[in-house]
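S.,

Sequence below, as promised.
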Amino acid sequence: MNSPGSIPTATLRSPARLMSALMLGLTGVASFLIVAVLLTVLGYLLFRGFGGLSIDFFTRLPTGNPQDPGGFANGILGTLILVGMAALVGVPFGVLAGIYLSEYGGRGLGAWLVSPVRLVCDVLAGVPSIVIGIVGYELIVVPMKGASAYAGAAALAVIMVPIVARTTEEMLRLVPASFREGSLALGATKSQTILRVVLPAAGGSVITGILLAVARIAGETAPILFTIGGSRLLPGDLDKEFPSLTLQIYNAARSPAPSEQQLAWTGMVVLIAILLVLNLAIRLATARAIKNRVGG
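The prediction came back faster than expected:
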């Protein structure tokens, strides 16, 4: 009950309730707009590209003939190989850098490196991919006197490393200090504690960061444009010009022939499907990590 002369509680709460309702409405509208834009883009892609899906698209090579353009079998396989090669370099370097930033950079002789390494990772993560492609062209393609899968994978790995490093660092920092203290108290060394206690505890989250980086590089075009040259053949020598799905989409979209433009739309649908699968894998890995953490 309100005392005589006091302002009713309902009157005091009404502005707060009004603001809460307003914020709820704004966030709901923003969420709806985001979903609507995504569904519009996906719907238009499916409308333009789904009709071109066929066995030939996945099994045939591009012919260059507008009357019979063939398929993108080499581009799909080439993209998978390029992403795999980039991951072989980017994942170990990124994870090791993240471990250093989280576990070894607090004190000692290596402490002075923490801030510069973290700054470099943050800057690299924000550098436009076309810049990395041009630098890769100058530093790898020109000295090697030709485009190659090695140059393309190296450019993609440079994009991948800072994402994996910063994600690994943040996930390892979430592991409780008591885990480390308990392991060290039982006689384990620093490296044993990291490998057998800290990393397994943050394993699902680290995998999530790796998959995010893989999804990022799988759809890159600019670094590939400057480094692999492109090829209409199945992937072969890694030191020669190499095929890529994103590069073939780019070239087919610029063609005046409607049949090749249709290939580009279909390639976009396949690329979006690949990225969708990767994002679903990220969500499953994240859900499993949260479940293990709660269960632990």
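The chain has one domain: 55-59+67-295.

Coffee later?
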